[in-house]
Design a protein that fits this description.
Elements (H helix, E strand, L loop, with lengths): L2 H11 L8 E10 L4 E10 L2 E4 L11 E4 L3 E5 L1 E6 L7 H4 L2 E6 L4 H12 L8 E4 L27 H11 L4 E4 L3 E2 L2 E2 L5 H13 L4 E4 L3 H9 L4 E2 L10 H14 L2 E2 L3 H7 L5 H4 L2 H4 L4 H8 L12 H13 L18 H12 L4 H7 L2 H6 L16 E5 L12 E6 L2 E2 L1 H16 L16 E3 L2 E3 L5 E6 L8 E8 L5 E9 L8 E6 L15 E8 L4 E7 L6 E5 L6 E6 L11 E8 L4 E13 L2
Parallel strand pairs: 1-4, 1-5, 6-7, 7-8, 9-12, 12-13, 13-14
Antiparallel strand pairs: 1-2, 2-3, 5-15, 10-11, 15-16, 16-17, 18-19, 20-23, 21-22, 22-29, 23-28, 24-27, 24-29, 25-26, 25-28
Keywords: Signal
Pfam families: Amidohydro_1, CIA30
Protein name: CIA30 family protein
Length: 600
């Protein structure tokens, strides 16, 4: 969180809902979470909706807000996020509640304590699954957080009870076999059913992460209350989509399509967000960078036909659809992505009204979130006022006038974000780093690896993410004062994507971006054991680096890789360039020399 927002959030947190003032929004179109009503006035008092169709005079001392030409919505609810950073951003974009599918237990418990004390005015409310339920080496274990895992056939009840004791609001289960060259261990059907039954025994919902049709059906047949995602696919028949929808309807399940992250996987960017000046004014470079960087290296829009088809089938079958973004992943951003998700739901066949239901009353009801998600007497006064009519043009949700949480305006947080971004944009662009005349960044000084700028060269392994791979770096003189770096790597199981190698950090501090736009490519010489290796590159805001493979042989050879091959990497904010072995376990040895950043 940025310092200005942190101070304002603290100030907001100090005023509990018991001291919230009285606000009257006059003559406004009201979407109450289910339907729209013209020319209404809504009275808010002490953090609650006092009257959703107020007809009297403005109470003495109340703040009166003009609603003409505007629409008042319940605070938006993102039904699928991973809460770990940018805690103030959701409120900036009108998202007052987030349903978290996996975060650190300490983060979850901090937010719960602040919510219970009424002291989180500067952040969205969060209802979290805490630690997800996955197999050893399963999806969820690839992040730099050590988590407990459940063996197939293990004690599901004890595992679920431990999550509930930590504070989990519901249980998130993983059925994921992986994709492409990346494979995960997965819980089998019997264990998934045992976990779902264990959750239900304690009165908790169980939602399941799936990534293909087979696992979607298996999760529903096992009794899942909801699917945390839909899935992309090269082929899917209408009958398969309709059959899945009928199954979900019969089981009384809900579905969170998460188009925002599925589009990221398909290499499709949220253009309407990236090109909207109002959105741009609220995202700093790092936040915007995450939104620009997707998982798919190249666009494959055809694979999005499957989730669109399934979403339309679910709508026809009357299955509750919830708006969720999977924010926290590449190609998404907290708060902002929910507005894209609403547009994606409309594109998939929902009416704008149905999309708004999916982001308000539907998730509140599905996840048992209490009296929120509607504009009705006695409900939580989480509100969003927008210009225009999103029931006709869903893009109007982006034209935010004001947001209230527990009856208090969050304008200070939004204004602080606007100032922060404006100040950042006002700073004259820095000149690209002046590269050495020969472009070489691998040097030898006093017998040790060195570099002409940046933090320098370091061993790089999966240990920071809980892995157990190891590496030894050796260096000796190469031509003209450069270094030849010998990399002896032991890649070991223990992390979903194990690796070991060497990394160059070009920033003045670790993981601080450096402007390398004076270069167009990385060039180096290599020799090794005949196996394939990768060059990886990341820039500010990226959670997963981009990688390009290269071959090795017994003789030295030169390799040149254009920066453009690292799709999504911003050359003006590079945080890391790595040379890695993996992910297959084994012993590796290769050498690199004369690593250069060059423009041709």
């Amino acid at each position: 969180m940025k310092p200005t927002a942190l101070m304002l959030a603290a100030a907001l947190a100090c005023s509990s809902t018991a001291f919230a003032g009285t606000t009257l929004v006059q003559d406004v179109r009201v979407f109450d979470g289910r339907s729209a009503h013209e020319h209404r006035s809504v009275l808010v008092r002490d953090g609650l909706i006092a009257d959703s169709d107020y007809r009297g005079k403005a109470p003495a001392g109340s703040r009166v807000v003009d609603g003409k030409g505007r629409t008042l919505l319940p605070g938006l609810i993102d039904a699928h996020v991973h809460t770990w950073q940018h805690f103030e951003l959701p409120l900036v974009f009108g998202v007052t509640t987030q349903v978290d599918m996996f975060t650190g237990v300490e983060v979850m418990q901090r937010i719960q304590k602040q919510m219970a004390a009424g002291r989180n005015g500067g952040e969205a409310d969060v209802f979290s699954a805490g630690t997800l339920v996955t197999a050893p080496g399963g999806h969820g274990t690839e992040y730099p957080v050590k988590i407990p895992t459940l063996e197939n056939g293990g004690d599901a009840q004890a595992f679920v009870d431990a999550r509930i004791a930590e504070g989990s609001h519901f249980i998130k289960v993983v059925m994921e076999d992986g994709f492409g060259d990346h494979h995960f261990n997965s819980l089998d059907r019997a264990t998934v059913k045992a976990v779902i039954d264990a959750a239900h025994k304690r009165g908790k919902l169980a939602v399941v992460h799936i990534s293909n049709l087979e696992n979607a059906r298996a999760a529903l047949e096992a009794g899942a209350d909801g699917l945390a995602h839909l899935f992309v696919a090269d082929k899917l028949s209408q009958e398969q989509a309709d059959s899945l929808a009928r199954l979900a309807q019969a089981k009384g399940a809900f579905v969170v399509p998460t188009f925002s992250v599925l589009e990221s996987i398909a290499g499709v960017k949220p253009r309407e967000l990236l090109e909207d000046p109002q959105v741009a004014a609220l995202l700093d470079r790092e936040e915007r960078g995450a939104l620009q960087t997707g998982y798919g290296p190249s666009p494959r829009p055809a694979i999005l036909a499957a989730p669109k088809m399934v979403t339309a089938a679910m709508r026809r079958a009357g299955v509750p659809l919830l708006a969720g973004t999977d924010a926290g992943n590449a190609g998404t951003q907290y708060g902002a992505s929910l507005h894209h998700e609403l547009a994606a739901l409309v594109d998939a066949g929902l009416s704008p009204r149905e999309a708004l239901v999916a982001a308000t009353s539907a998730p509140a009801r599905a996840f048992r979130l209490g009296r929120r998600g509607q504009i009705a007497k006695g409900y939580k006064a989480d509100l969003v006022l927008v210009e225009g009519n999103p029931l006709q043009d869903i893009a109007a949700t982006r034209r935010i006038v004001e947001v209230w949480k527990d009856g208090e305006s969050t304008a200070p947080v939004r204004d602080a974000q606007l100032r922060h971004v404006a100040q950042q944009n006002a700073v004259k662009g820095t000149q690209p780093l002046a590269l050495p005349a020969d472009g070489r960044i691998s040097l030898l000084k006093d017998g040790k690896l060195a570099s002409p700028f940046g933090t320098g060269w370091f061993p790089s392994t999966d240990k920071f993410a809980g892995g157990v791979s190891t590496v030894n770096l050796g260096a000796q003189s190469a031509s003209e004062g450069g270094a030849a770096i010998a990399i002896d790597a032991q890649v070991k199981p223990g992390f979903a994507y194990p690796w070991a190698g060497a990394a160059f950090l070009p920033g003045a501090q670790p993981m601080l971006g450096a402007d390398l736009s004076a270069a167009k490519m990385v060039r180096f010489r290599v020799r090794g054991d005949g196996r394939k290796y990768t060059v990886s590159m990341a820039s500010s805001g990226m959670t997963i680096p981009r990688s390009v493979a290269f071959d090795t042989g017994a003789e030295w050879k030169e390799v040149t890789i254009p920066f453009s091959d690292f799709a999504g990497v911003d050359p003006s904010a590079v945080t890391m360039i790595g040379f890695n072995a993996g992910p297959q376990p084994g012993d590796y040895r290769f050498e690199i020399a004369d690593v250069r950043l060059v423009d041709r």
